[in-house]
Amino acid sequence: MKVLVKFFVFDLPPGFADAELELPEGSVVEDVLDACLDLLEQRNVTMDVNELKTATVMVNDKWSDPGDPVADGDTVSIIRPMDGG
Predict the structure, then answer these.
(1) Comparing C-alpha atoms, which of 33, 20, 16, 19 is closest to residue 68?
(2) DSSP states along 4-55
(3) Are 38 and 79 in contact (CB under 8 A)?
(4) If we measure between CA atoms, which residue out of 54, 48, 62 comes closest to residue 80?
(5) Distance of alpha carbon 17 from its chain centroid, rounded?
(6) Which of 20, 50, 57, 79 is the most buried (most CB within 10 A)?
(7) Is residue 85 part of a domain?
(8) pTM of the prediction?
(9) Looking at the domain assignment, is residue 34 inside a domain?
(10) What's the CATH code of the domain at 40?
(11) Residue-number span of the structural domain to which 74 is assigned
(12) What is the pLDDT of residues 16-64, one digit of tens each?
């Protein structure tokens, strides 16, 4: 199945605002995050694993938890934790 992943507020190179991922049926949000890390590593893009794992995730504009399922055609938005001070 294919899902579209959109990255928000991450310091990524141009062309990494979104990605289409191929995942096995039965995948969950945690699998999407792992696949994102693999994709970024393949493209030699460094990202803090904790930053990605603590990000806010929405599936089709609804708040999601790591164990929530994803389906073919879903849009997964990953929003970096905000720093403040």
Answers:
(1) 33
(2) EEEEES----TT-SEEEEE--TT-BHHHHHHHHHHHHHHTT----HHHHHTS
(3) no
(4) 54
(5) 11
(6) 57
(7) no
(8) 0.87
(9) yes
(10) 3.10.20.30
(11) 2-79
(12) 778 899 999 999 999 999 999 898 888 887 777 787 788 899 999 999 9
